[in-house]
Amino acid sequence: MSVSKVDPSTAHLALPFFDEAHRELARGLLPWTAAQDVDERDDRAACRDWVRRLGDGGWLRYCVPAAFGGALERLDSRALVLLRETLAFHSPLADFAFAMQGLGSGAITLAGNAAQQSDYLSAVARGDRIAAFALSEPEAGSDVGAMAMQAVDTGSGWRLDGVKTWISNGGIADFYVVFAKTDPAGGTRGITAFIVDADARGLDTSEHIQVMAPHPLATLRFGACEVPHGAQLGDVHGGFKLAMRTLDIFRASVAAAALGMARRALSEAIAHAKSRRMFGQTLADFQLTQAKLGDMAALVDSAALLTYRAAWMRDEGERTGKPFADYTAAAAMAKMCATENAQRVIDMALQMHGGSGVQVGTKVESLYRDIRALRIYEGATEVQQLIIGKSVLRE
Question: Does residue 109 sit in helix, strand or coil?
Fold first, then answer.
């Protein structure tokens, strides 16, 4: 059997972090994902295809609350983790398509008014609208307070001027959740969020960005872009807190995406080690190979435990109304360790494949490119280290 059709182990579902609803979700998702066959040579066309398939399959319903066509009463981090881990195991681009529907609409779930939620969330759940989250700028990535884009109240609406870059789904999204300065001197306390439809006058999304693991990215240019007052999302000057709350929900799921890729790399390495013959025996018969596989398995499992713990902590805090004070640090640990561990696991898997590991088109070669961006986006490893370090000092 091809490794591409092998599902990852489900032993982790027995861990106490999950309940029966999560196990049922995974049991349905595993065979569905393995059965999909999407042509990913054109990343933009492939992402549209994946959004449609995920919508038709009902999986995007986990991106929004039940009141708007969602599968669960509220956004559930453990469900997001299981979905992203499984999708990333089979196709990092499928994971990307799913994740951006959640991240791009998450702020509307958290702070949208009734009209905004009704208009956008149901369409996201069906896969009828593609969502995007526009926070980063050329000079404001990790330092959100350095944001230069401005929004001015014209009396009849808002006028947006500035540039956003490294925007996932840029150029294919139907709408963007955009963050801009409404108080230029206010730093992080002067930012407001807006929902901007892709056809808004003054918005140019044509500048695509090519990266080593192809997926839709673009620079967005806003030139006197007019949106109505009803496009304001949440409170004036409340944009920074809204962006951070949104990222907090999905940070553990970034770790899960890395975990899925690491599990796939381990599966590829095991299959290769068992079949590759050298010096009259298989590669798996060598103690050095066994030691490497042991390292890889330990890195995967340690990342999994941190990831599942972070997701459980957020869900439990939401359920009880008593958020864990150290959840943000736990999510940072999960994101940092899962992405860094996955990079190591994939590198070892590629090394084990020898020359075939660097051949374009092989799975470990594509994983090697896919994993690299996860150590940067939604908070680089160095940012996660700072979050964790400050938390430790407070304790």
Answer: helix
pLDDT at 240: 97
| Strand (E) or helix (H) holding 159 | strand 158-168
Using CA atoms, how far apart are residues 43 and 135, in angstroms rounded to an integer?
Answer: 22
Residue 364 in this model has a pLDDT that exceeds 80: yes
- Kindly report the CA angle at 213 between 207 and 219, in degrees rounded to 5? 20
Q: Shortest CA distance to 81 belongs to which of 3, 14, 9, 26?
A: 26
Residue type, 326: D
Interhelix angle for 327-353 vs 239-275, to 10°?
Answer: 30
Q: Is the dihedral of CA 353, 359, 365, 366 positive or negative?
A: negative
Fill in the DSSP letter of residue 366: H
Question: 1: pLDDT confidence band, cut at 50, 70 and 90?
Answer: very low
Q: Which two tokens stand for residue 124?
A: 């996201």
Q: Average pLDDT for residues 163-178, to the nearest whole number? A: 98
pLDDT at residue 5, rounded to an integer: 45
Q: Is 326 helix (H, G, I), strand (E, B) or coil?
A: coil
- Inter-residue contact 193 to 107 (CB < 8 Å): yes
User: Using 50, 70 and 90 to split pLDDT, how confident is the model at 184?
Assistant: very high
For residue 51, what are the CA distances in angstroms to 11, 34, 85, 95, 98?
A: 28, 16, 17, 10, 7
- Backbone dihedral region for residue 234 (phi beyond 0: left; psi -120 to 50: alpha; all else: beta): left
| DSSP H helices in the chain | 20-35, 43-56, 77-90, 92-111, 114-126, 239-275, 287-320, 327-353, 363-372, 381-394
Reported as half-sphere exposure (CB side, CA atoms, 13 A), residue 345 has a value of 33
379 dihedral zone (left: phi>0; alpha: psi -120 to 50; beta): left
- Predicted local distance difference test score (pLDDT) of residue 2: 43
Q: Token digits for 321?
A: 């109304």
Q: Tell me the catalytic residues.
A: 378
